[in-house]
């Protein structure tokens, strides 16, 4: 055994051979050509980092053709089931809108009834007044135009104006044309005369009806009349002065009363008497709805003729009672 082998471990029969000394690369000359293998460029896609540093579950990746935008998803989101509370809120909202609409309709109706119809009736009253004055000024001999009670008055056509009513307590400008008839087509134009009642100045009951609110509102303040207040009726050639009855009038007829619409005895020849009974004086009765904005009852005012009729020839500007307001 050599000295060189003395320091090496001994190998068994089947020990692997030691590798040979590696061959050092030989220097390459300057004129040599170096061949290098070309590796194809492979595009690298950046890896998206999981949100919040959480691991990405491959099962949650979904279809690459879909997006998280709810406006572009293929499947619509499921609709929420309506609860009883939703139905109640919808119903309350609908009822509220209905009430608001109904309130506006009622408001418009009130405006029409109170103001618009007043304007319309005032214009009709102006036209009726001009027509009646023109008939009187031309000296019409038409037998339908009322004259003195003893002058043989014939029937006045329905809807025709034949006299004026003045109530000083309502102001010096209160003047209304009285029309024949108490149907709505007459009352929308002014106070109407009950066709079966007496004429101005006659024995019996000269009875008039008029609207209290709207259609000119001729009897709006009828409840403000007091005992002794004058009510002046003007015909073609005569003035008639009636005065509201006293509360303790010997006749027992009240100055004011409130009755049901079916109580027609208030326009009897003697107020509150029999419809076919005799007349006990020359009365004036004014009727209107009560209370205001309602037709549930009737407000009645009774007056009696005060003195003799006054010819217009003696008082062309009217009787002194006109200045008592």
Automatic annotation (TrEMBL):
Any GO molecular function: hydrolase activity
Catalytic site: 211 (proton donor/acceptor), 289 (acyl-thioester intermediate)
Low complexity biased stretches: 63-75
Transmembrane segments: 94-115
Gene3D superfamilies, alphabetized: Sortase
Keywords: Hydrolase, Membrane, Transmembrane, Transmembrane helix
UniProt-listed InterPro entries: Sortase, Sortase_Class_E, Sortase_dom-sf, Sortase_E
Renumbered residue ranges of the record's region Disordered: 1-85
Protein name: Sortase A
């Amino acid at each position: 055994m050599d000295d060189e082998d003395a320091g090496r471990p001994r190998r068994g029969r089947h020990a692997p051979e030691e590798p040979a000394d590696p061959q050092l690369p030989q220097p390459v000359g300057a004129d040599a050509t170096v061949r290098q293998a070309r590796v194809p460029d492979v595009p690298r896609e950046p890896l998206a980092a999981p949100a919040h540093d959480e691991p990405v579950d491959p099962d949650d990746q979904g279809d690459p053709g879909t997006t998280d935008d709810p406006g572009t998803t293929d499947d619509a989101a499921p609709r929420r089931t309506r609860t009883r509370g939703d139905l109640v809120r919808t119903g309350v909202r609908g009822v509220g809108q209905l009430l608001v609409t109904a309130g506006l309709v009622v408001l418009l109706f009130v405006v029409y009834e109170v103001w618009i119809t007043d304007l319309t009736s005032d214009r009709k009253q102006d036209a009726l007044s001009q027509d009646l004055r023109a008939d009187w000024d031309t000296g019409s001999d038409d037998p339908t135009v009322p004259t003195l009670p003893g002058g043989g008055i014939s029937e006045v056509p329905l809807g025709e104006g034949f006299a004026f009513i003045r109530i000083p307590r309502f102001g010096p400008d209160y003047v209304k044309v009285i029309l024949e008839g108490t149907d709505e087509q007459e009352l929308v134009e002014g106070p109407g005369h009950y066709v079966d009642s007496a004429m101005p100045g006659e024995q019996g009951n000269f009875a008039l009806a008029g609207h209290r609110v709207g259609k000119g509102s001729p009897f709006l303040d009828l409840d403000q009349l007091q005992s002794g207040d004058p009510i002046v009726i003007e015909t073609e050639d005569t003035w008639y002065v009636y005065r509201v009855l006293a509360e303790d009038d010997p006749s027992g007829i009240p100055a004011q009363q409130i009755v049901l619409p079916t109580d027609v005895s208030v326009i009897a020849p003697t107020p509150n008497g029999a419809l076919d009974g005799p007349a006990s004086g020359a009365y004036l009765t004014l009727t209107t709805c009560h209370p205001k904005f309602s037709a549930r009852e009737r407000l009645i005012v009774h007056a009696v003729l005060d003195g003799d009729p006054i010819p217009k020839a003696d008082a062309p500007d009217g009787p002194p009672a006109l200045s008592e307001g």
